[in-house]
Amino acid sequence: MPTNQIPPITIAQLWTSGESMSISGRELDIVRCVLQGKRQIEIADELYISPVTVHTHFCRMYQRLGVHSRSQLVLLVFATYAKMPRRKHPQFATPAGA
């Protein structure tokens, strides 16, 4: 993997990004659904909540994080993740002598 690319984000890494952005666990569930390309009604169905509740979560996240759309929210999550310190993982380690 080229060094300028961010490895695929995992749920654990997304959780850490969410904590650093002060996103609640439920809001993080909603962000995870957005990253999966789900619409508001699909998010509500998956999380067993009302579409109005999903909308309320979006409004609160947007206000708190200073974003105005799902696209901006996703970009903020990835930007926050990209700034996080990385642990060396064997999958991404450079082979000895390379």
List strands and helices in order, with pairings.
Blueprint: H1 11-20, H2 25-35, H3 40-47, H4 51-65, H5 70-83
Helix pairs in contact: 1-5, 2-3, 3-4
Description:
This protein is an all-alpha fold. 59% of the residues lie in helices and 0% in strands. It is built from five helices and no strands. It has helices spanning 11-20, 25-35, 40-47, 51-65, 70-83. Helix 1 crosses helix 5 and helix 2 crosses helix 3. 12% of the residues are buried. The model is unreliable at 1-7 and 89-93 (pLDDT under 50).
User: What is the beta-strand fraction?
Assistant: under 5%
Helix content: 55-70%
User: What number is the mean pLDDT?
Assistant: 75
Radius of gyration: 16 Å
SSE string, helices as H and strands as E: HHHHH
Q: How many angstroms does the end-to-end distance come to? A: 14 Å
State the major sheet: none
- Total number of β-strand segments? 0
- Tell me, what's the shape? globular
Poorly predicted regions are 1-7, 89-93
Briefly note the structural class of the backbone.
mainly alpha
Number of helices: 5
What's a quick, concise take on this entry?
With 98 residues, the chain is mainly α. The protein has 5 helices and no strands. Helix 2 (25-35) crosses helix 3 (40-47).
Describe this protein with a few key phrases.
about 100 residues; mainly alpha; about 0% strand
